Amino acid sequence: MDAPRLLSAVERALAAPPARGADDSSTPVDVPGALVLILVDGAALEAAAAVLPPLLRVLGAPGLRRPLLVAASESEVRPSRAEVQALLGPVVPGATLVVHDADGSHHFRPGSTSHGVPIELDDVLLEAEVLVTVGEVRRDPCLGWVGGAGLVFPGLASRRSRAALRALAPGPEGSRLRWQEAEEARAHAPVDFQLCWVEPGPLHGCAWASAGRVAEGAARASVDRGS
Q1: Torsion sign over Cα 37, 212, 16, 84
Q2: DSSP single-letter state for residue 157
Q3: What's the half-sphere exposure (Cβ side, CA atoms, 13 Å) at 10?
Q4: Cα separation of 48 and 7, whole Å?
Q5: Spatial distance between the Cα atoms of 64 and 60, rounded to a whole number of angstroms
Q6: Measured between alpha carbons, how far is 107 from 126 in angstroms, rounded to an integer?
Q7: What tens digit of pLDDT does each residue of 56-107 get?
Q8: 175: how many CB neighbours lie within 10 A of its CB?
Q9: By the 8 A CB rule, do 88 and 48 touch?
Q10: Pairing, β 207-211 against β 193-197
């Protein structure tokens, strides 16, 4: 999606009435004084740079406490710190910029899933009081659904966690099991606010914003309808 079209879709989503889901949460979230961690899709940094200004306005900038801006990827490809600094640094001056390293030593372990997948998450999450995800929601032939809370797990998971998740049963049954296990892991770092979009095609480049995880659910449903 080209930047002007994406920005227009995002601004409409952010201006829409509060989205409500099973948790009956509304948008915008209450963030005054809180340390906000904005988790962006490392594979979509240019798009993230385009949509961060209106998102920050909704979250309360310029009075927003200096946020943590973390780039994560559900695949094995991750951006360099130089790329993140060049694309996102000018958009959020003064923000602390982090690129998640699955091979790094800075992970905490709140437990394991029902099938023994170790839940090892970047300890940057321990600093966050409000967790926001920003990125495209799409189907991936290897990873299944990508985006939304997937940026938390496996996006912020250690290499060992990722390998254990992939090692679960193959095929359709394995995909369902991996999703269930990932959801168990994500419960340890619940998302407070989401900004999601899908690429054009039958969907004409739509975006959603909500507290909780209503936005990614709407994006996935739209992808299914457009398939």
Answers
A1: positive
A2: B
A3: 28
A4: 10
A5: 5
A6: 10
A7: 988 876 667 788 999 999 988 889 999 999 999 999 988 999 999 999 989 9
A8: 15
A9: yes
A10: antiparallel
